[in-house]
Each structure stands twice: as structure tokens, then as C-alpha cells.
């Protein structure tokens, strides 16, 4: 046994300290955990084959001692679902009568050639023909697949014929008339023909947009959508509906079309990566690839490096910097910024200093109070006292603190003719070479520099006179044929932000209202029982078939309402996620302003309420009789919005109603009956058990991914007030349920990033209980050279400065918006006033 333990220690030494050639090759191909597991399995097989207690059979318990069950959720995030699903989610059961689904098939047979402006309060045969065409001319099709082909072909014909020009103009006219009616309180005066025409125009534009997103069509459609400002009109319309809510506005459909227009004008996540690379190149970011998880070179921020340099100068005052050892491409920017940053932080009282504070050792609340090194190592030590201490006589033990103040100079010698130890020099070089610079940091620091200049009164940053052209304007005005798509996207985002700045607050309020409305209070078990002939209430008590049909139809309408809320939530979460990411690429201040709107609307509380209602909810679970014998935690993880089947109502489905193939009502499944632990297991070559979860609610996965990313983005770095507010929601248990029971990078990465921000403010007991979460952070997130987030935070300083940091951020956001968009800010009630500023007279005699 002792020999076996020695061999295991040798295995660990071979892996970590002295890896051989084969081990290094394995480490390149896999992670440390997987390589170590393979080594352990190999050693286990050796022990098993030579062990007198085991025969080496694979079925023995000794062979399976390294098995670990991992429930993998087979979900891959995508900006769009299949076309047939996106189109079906547009309609409700009551929409078919409004749009005249049956009448269109009998009145319209040919593709339209024109669409003229008309009175929206009267019917239009041309609009009916256009609507029938984009719906796929379903009267001549026999299957949903044939109808999908017709939809794609007819939409291309409509775009190539230019009919979309009039359709978008008419839709904007509908928005205008609705706004006028809402403001005047005369919504009831709108005729039924107007409501029908309004919905038909929404449907036409929605179908054209979806076909354009899923297939290659003429770019004229995208250009016209941009020039018509339809996306800006929808956001303004949503803001107006927030003030004057009315069912006539069809806000659910407007949210869906807003989501698809954002994807059409700005682009999906694939295009987002291309624009991100383009902006990084324009800002001369040389080490962007070092942020990728695949890159094993660690990085640190400018603030971490500046703090390290300050600590170094405090500890070794005689240290002289050797500029020759610095990389040339980092020398000019890093050294200059370090001098300016530390000078501003030390000698300036600017409000913006709170946004990025260097947490040096001497300024630390606890570390700065430690004793200093007052005795040199060469000082003679006095003789010990002749009498024994009180502790040796049974008295109280004298406790000593062996930590010293690291902010004070180092008094011990470090070697012959050495100012500082060689290890410290190597650490300095490592950190300097690892400084990561992003265009968001550059933009933020440039805006902060402008803010400080305005704050001091040196230069009027609001004036347009002799305003220098910055790199942002160069990017927007550049004519680069190779990056035409990227520059167009950035211009569209800038145009959109300028046009909707006054409406973003209303948009955020509506989107969060959609999230609040998704509190699940409909019992799925009772609904399932009514569709089963053996358990239906009416059948058990001798009810007639007519009564049963009425009960089932009423339940179907209730289920449809739940499904419609979920679809609206899907669109709302996508809008939040896309706008936040695109604003960050356009300018980091836009992104921070958008996060501030969400934070002010109590997004954290709304999100945690939705998370709790979606997972810990008895309405989503089976009866106690069925779940008898099942552990409560298994019920929690197996019967929730994520694991329960998606609601599917074929009787109300769009393509079924178009083709007249509406199925009869039968038993439906609304609750998952199979716990995760009872799903089929597969074992890989490393003796690890995998459970692949293939049946789940994809819509809720999409929603949860978006909301988790938004939550992580709202908690900005160095703004601790938001972390404190989110921590007060007691969300860690719910997040841990998702993290540990559904292994999927779409969930895991944002949740781990959230935990990484929360853990420094948790107690020791919480950390001891949740060491598995802490380990996952180190395993799956990008490490940095200064990973002191677990224990190196100055909690007292963070708490005392939290409100001041938020105020400083709001001041910077207001300054940016006032400087760039003064007319929009004037509409919101902000204006510049220079009347009360005293004029400083310049007296030349004082300086002669």
C-alpha cells in the first residue's frame, strides 16, 4: 500500500512539476483535469489487474470508482429558430379571423403587381392580395413544406417588385394614427377595417423580414428598412404604448417585429464578431486574441498593472525602472497612462476617480493597518528573560500577528548589489507583457479625460468649435470597400441610438413588464388530466361529450395564453441582449447607459423572481401521489420550465389552419415524467458517466441564456453597488441549480461570471459550502495574472464607496449624452447653462 501511494505521488509530480513529452502532448490536447483523470484510470487498471481483491472485471465496483455523472444539456444557442417556427409564433387563434384567413384563399389567386397608398380605414384588395402572397398562397398547397417554399419565393418576388416600399410606409402611417388615437383617447373610434389592415401590414413586414434573415435576398430591402427608420418607429411606438396601453396596438407583434428588425439592420452574433474585430483593428488593439479561452497566455488589466507598480515602488523605493526591457508597442501607451493615471488618482479630486481606483496595499483598509518592519535583520536580539512567561506557567497565551504591512519599505537585504530581488523583476516583466488593452477601455478613458477637462474648466468639451476629429468619427465616416458591411452597421447603431435615446427608458420599462407578466400560475397537472379520458373530471362524473369539449377548449385557450407570454418574453430577452451587445461595440458609454436604465428598473429583482417561479414552482410539478418516493431535489430539477415539454397546440397552429388539417384533441404531455437520474447513461473512455438531456423547452433555454447574459453585463466592473443589490436578492441557490444540473456553456459561462463577482462578498461559511462553484470558476473561466478576486478585495472600502461609484458613473454618462446628443437630452429636461459661471479676468501685469 505504501508503494502504491508513492506511485500516485509520482504520477502527480509527473503531471504538474516534471511532465514528460507524452504528458505535455496530452496537456495540449485536453485540460489538466482530463489528463489527470486518464492517468488515474491507467494507474487504477494497473492496481486492479494486480490486486488480489479484484479480478479486473469491468463490472466490479473497484473499476467504477472514478465514475462521475455529468448531465449534459444538448442545447446550442441560435439567433433564429427554424423559419416555420418563427412564422407560427406570430399568430394567435383569434388572429385568423382578423386577417381573414379563409376569405383570402377564395378572393386572391394571383401575385400582386402593385400596392398603392389607400385609406387605412377601408378595405384594400391590393393589400389582401399582398398578404395572401406572403402567407404562401396556401389555397393551392397541400402541405406545410410546400407552403414554406411558396412563402420564400413570393417574399422574394415582393421585394424584387419593390412592393415593400409602400408596405413599410403604410405601416408607419398605422403607427402614427394609433399614436394620435392613443394620445387623444379615441382608440374606440378606430374601425375594424383599420385593425385588420394594421395587422396585415405587420404580417407582411414580419414575413418579409424573416425570409430576408433566413435566405439571401436583395440588399434593397435592408437599405429601405434603414432609410425608412422603421426600427426607430417601432421603438417610439412601444414607448407610446407604455404611456397609453391599449390592445389595439398589438404590442406582442410589435415586440416580435422589433426583434427581427434589430437582427436585420444590425446583424446576428456571427456578424457581431466581425464588427468587433474591425473596431479592434481600428483602435490598434494588438493583443485581443489573448482574451480567448483557447489562448493559454494570461493577461491582466491596466489597473492591476498600475497597482502592482505602485506597490513595487512603495516596497522598494530605490527601484529604477529599466525601459529597455519593455516591449516597444506597449511602452508608449502603458508608461504614459501609468504616470497620468496615478497622478490623477493621487492629486486630483475628480469625481471620475471613483470609477477606477488603484487598490494598493497602503490604501487597503485592513492591510494598511498592519505593523511595519521596524527592526532590521542585522539588529542584535536581546537575551531572553530569565523568568518564564505567563503562558508557560499556565497563563493566557500571547497571540502574535506575523503579517506585516506590505506598503512599507522592505528593510531586509536582497543580495549583492541588487536593488530588488530577481523574482520581483521577473514578475514586473510578466505583468507588463500581459497587460490587456481593449477598445472599450480606450474609449472609456478618453471620455473620462474629456470629463475631467470639463470638470476643471480647462476646455469647453461641449463646444463644437475647433473640435478635433476622433477615431470614432473616422470609423463612421470611413469609406472602406473591404469593411463596408461593418461600417454600415456602426452607422446604423449610431443613428438608432440618436433617434431613440428619448424612448429607451420606455422601451426598457415595457420589456421588464413582459418579464414580470410571466409568473406561472396555471396548474399543468390539472390540464393534463382533463385531456386524458380516464382522469377527465367531466367523464368521471358522467358529463356529456359537449361539456368535455368545452372544458378542453377553455384549457387550450389558457395554454395558448401561457405560450403567448413565453413568446413575448423570448422576443423581449432577445431585444435586451442584442441592444446591450451592439451598444457596447458602438461605444462603451452607450452600453453603460443602457445597463443603468435596466438597473434603475429593478431588473435584478424581476429576473430572480422569474427564475424562482420557473424552477421552484408547484404549478409546474406533477401530483404528490405521482412524485411519491422521489427526492424533492430531483423534482425541482426535473419538473420546471426548462425540463417540461414545450407547449404545443396543433389545433391553433398556423400551417395546420392554412391547410385545413386541424387534428382532433387528444392526450397531451405538459410535465416531464423522467427524472434526470433515470435518463440513459453513456460512459466514455475516461470512465465518466454522461447523461444527455435531449428533451427540453428550447424557447426557455433561449430566454434563460439571454437573461443570464444581461444580468452579467449589468454588473459592471468596479461598480460594487450593483453587486450588493443583486446579492440581496438571495439568488445563489437558484443559479447553482442551473449551473450544476444542466451542463451547457450557454448557461455555465454567464453564471460563473456572475458568481465570480458575487463570491468576494460572501462569508467564509458560504465559500466552504460552495467550493464546487469556486473550482468551476477556476476551471472554465479565463484566468488572469492577478486572480485575487477570492480573498484580495477591500470589502469595507467597496461598501463605503459603492454609492459614490454609481453617482460618478451617472455623471460620466450624462456628460457623454449631453456632449453628443444635446437636442435629445433637452427633450428629457437636461440643458447647458453658462449664465451663472463667473468670468475670470486675465491680468497680464500679474505674469509680467
TrEMBL record:
One of its GO terms (cellular component) is cytosol. It holds the Pfam family DUF3402. Transmembrane segments: none annotated. InterPro entries: Far11/STRP (IPR040185), Far11/STRP_C (IPR021819), Far11/STRP_N (IPR012486). GO terms for biological process: cytoskeleton organization. It comes from the Eukaryota. Residues 70-332 form the Far11/STRP N-terminal domain. Coiled coil: none annotated. Residues 421-846 form the Far11/STRP C-terminal domain. This is CIC11C00000001319.
Amino acid at each position: 500500500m505504501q508503494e502504491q501511494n508513492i506511485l500516485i505521488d509520482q504520477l502527480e509530480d509527473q503531471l504538474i512539476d516534471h511532465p514528460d513529452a507524452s504528458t505535455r502532448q496530452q496537456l495540449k490536447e485536453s485540460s489538466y483535469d482530463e489528463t489527470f483523470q486518464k492517468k488515474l484510470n491507467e494507474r487504477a487498471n494497473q492496481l486492479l489487474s494486480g490486486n488480489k481483491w479484484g479480478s479486473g472485471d469491468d463490472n466490479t465496483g473497484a473499476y467504477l470508482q472514478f465514475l462521475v455523472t455529468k448531465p449534459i444539456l444538448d442545447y446550442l444557442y441560435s439567433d433564429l429558430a427554424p423559419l416555420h417556427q418563427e412564422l407560427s409564433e406570430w399568430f394567435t387563434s383569434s388572429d385568423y379571423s382578423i386577417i381573414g384567413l379563409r376569405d383570402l384563399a377564395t378572393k386572391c389567386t394571383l401575385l400582386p403587381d402593385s400596392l398603392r397608398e389607400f385609406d387605412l380605414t377601408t378595405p384594400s384588395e391590393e393589400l389582401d392580395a399582398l398578404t395572401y402572397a406572403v402567407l404562401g398562397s396556401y389555397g393551392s398547397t397541400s402541405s406545410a413544406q410546400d407552403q414554406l417554399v411558396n412563402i420564400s419565393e413570393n417574399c422574394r418576388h415582393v421585394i424584387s417588385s419593390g412592393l415593400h416600399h409602400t408596405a413599410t410606409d403604410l405601416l408607419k402611417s398605422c403607427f402614427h394614427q394609433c399614436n394620435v388615437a392613443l394620445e387623444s383617447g379615441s382608440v374606440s373610434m378606430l374601425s375594424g377595417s383599420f385593425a385588420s389592415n394594421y395587422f396585415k401590414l405587420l404580417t407582411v413586414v414580419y414575413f418579409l423580414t424573416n425570409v430576408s434573415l433566413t435566405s439571401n435576398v436583395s440588399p434593397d430591402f435592408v437599405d429601405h428598412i434603414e432609410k425608412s427608420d422603421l426600427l426607430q418607429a417601432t421603438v417610439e411606438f412601444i414607448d407610446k404604448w407604455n404611456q397609453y396601453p391599449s390592445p389595439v396596438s398589438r404590442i406582442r407583434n410589435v415586440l416580435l417585429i422589433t426583434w427581427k428588425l434589430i437582427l436585420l439592420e444590425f446583424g446576428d452574433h456571427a456578424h457581431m464578431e466581425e464588427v468587433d474585430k474591425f473596431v479592434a483593428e481600428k483602435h490598434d488593439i494588438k493583443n485581443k486574441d489573448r482574451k480567448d479561452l483557447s489562448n493559454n497566455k494570461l493577461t491582466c488589466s491596466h489597473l492591476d498593472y498600475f497597482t502592482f507598480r505602485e506597490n513595487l515602488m512603495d516596497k522598494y523605493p530605490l527601484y529604477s525602472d529599466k525601459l529597455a526591457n519593455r516591449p516597444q508597442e506597449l511602452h508608449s501607451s502603458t508608461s504614459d497612462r501609468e504616470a497620468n493615471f496615478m497622478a490623477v488618482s493621487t492629486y486630483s479630486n475628480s469625481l471620475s476617480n471613483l470609477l477606477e481606483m488603484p487598490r494598493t496595499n497602503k490604501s487597503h483598509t485592513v492591510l494598511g493597518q498592519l505593523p511595519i518592519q521596524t527592526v532590521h535583520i542585522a539588529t542584535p536580539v536581546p537575551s531572553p528573560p530569565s523568568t518564564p512567561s505567563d503562558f508557560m506557567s499556565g497563563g493566557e497565551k500571547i497571540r502574535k500577528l506575523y503579517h506585516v504591512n506590505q506598503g512599507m519599505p522592505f528593510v531586509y537585504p536582497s543580495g549583492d548589489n541588487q536593488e530588488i530581488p530577481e523574482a520581483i523583476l521577473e514578475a514586473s516583466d510578466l505583468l507588463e507583457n500581459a497587460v490587456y488593452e481593449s477598445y472599450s477601455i480606450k474609449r472609456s478613458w478618453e471620455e473620462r479625460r474629456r470629463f475631467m477637462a470639463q470638470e476643471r474648466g480647462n476646455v469647453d468639451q461641449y463646444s463644437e468649435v475647433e473640435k478635433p476629429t476622433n477615431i470614432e468619427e473616422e470609423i463612421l465616416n470611413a469609406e472602406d470597400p473591404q469593411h463596408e458591411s461593418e461600417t454600415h452597421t456602426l452607422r446604423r447603431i449610431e443613428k438608432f441610438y440618436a433617434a431613440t435615446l428619448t424612448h429607451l427608458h420606455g422601451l426598457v420599462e415595457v420589456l421588464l413588464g413582459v418579464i414580470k407578466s410571466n409568473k406561472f400560475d396555471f396548474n399543468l397537472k390539472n390540464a393534463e388530466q382533463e385531456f386524458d379520458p380516464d382522469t377527465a373530471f367531466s367523464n368521471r362524473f358522467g358529463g356529456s361529450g359537449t361539456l368535455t369539449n368545452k372544458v378542453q377548449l377553455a384549457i387550450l385557450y389558457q395554454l395558448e395564453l401561457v405560450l403567448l407570454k413565453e413568446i413575448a418574453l423570448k422576443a423581449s430577452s432577445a431585444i435586451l441582449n442584442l441592444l446591450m451587445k451592439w451598444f457596447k461595440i458602438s461605444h462603451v458609454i452607450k452600453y453603460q447607459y443602457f445597463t443603468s436604465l435596466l438597473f434603475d428598473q429593478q431588473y435584478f429583482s424581476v429576473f430572480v423572481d422569474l427564475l424562482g417561479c420557473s424552477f421552484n414552482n408547484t404549478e409546474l410539478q406533477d401530483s404528490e401521489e405521482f412524485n411519491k418516493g422521489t427526492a424533492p431535489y430531483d423534482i425541482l430539477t426535473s419538473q420546471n420550465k426548462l425540463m417540461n415539454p414545450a407547449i404545443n397546440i396543433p389545433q391553433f397552429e398556423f400551417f395546420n389552419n392554412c391547410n385545413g388539417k386541424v387534428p382532433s384533441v387528444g392526450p397531451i404531455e405538459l410535465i416531464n415524467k423522467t427524472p434526470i437520474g433515470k435518463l440513459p447513461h453513456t460512459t466514455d473512455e475516461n470512465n465518466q458517466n454522461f447523461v444527455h438531456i435531449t428533451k427540453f423547452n428550447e424557447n426557455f433555454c433561449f430566454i434563460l441564456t439571454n437573461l443570464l447574459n444581461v444580468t452579467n453585463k449589468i454588473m459592471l466592473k468596479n461598480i460594487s453597488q450593483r453587486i450588493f443589490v443583486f446579492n440581496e436578492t438571495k439568488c445563489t441557490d437558484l443559479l447553482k441549480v442551473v449551473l450544476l444540473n444542466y451542463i451547457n456553456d450557454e448557461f455555465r459561462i454567464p453564471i460563473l461570471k456572475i458568481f465570480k463577482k458575487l463570491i468576494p462578498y460572501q462569508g467564509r461559511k458560504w465559500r466552504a459550502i460552495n467550493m464546487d462553484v469556486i473550482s468551476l470558476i477556476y476551471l472554465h473561466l479565463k484566468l488572469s495574472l492577478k486572480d485575487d478576486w477570492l480573498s484580495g478585495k477591500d470589502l469595507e472600502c467597496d461598501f463605503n464607496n459603492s454609492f459614490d461609484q454609481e453617482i460618478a458613473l451617472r455623471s460620466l454618462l450624462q456628460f457623454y449624452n449631453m456632449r453628443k446628443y444635446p437636442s435629445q437630452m433637452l427633450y428629457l429636461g437636461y440643458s447647458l447653462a453658462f449664465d451663472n459661471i463667473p468670468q475670470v479676468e486675465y491680468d497680464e501685469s500679474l505674469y509680467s
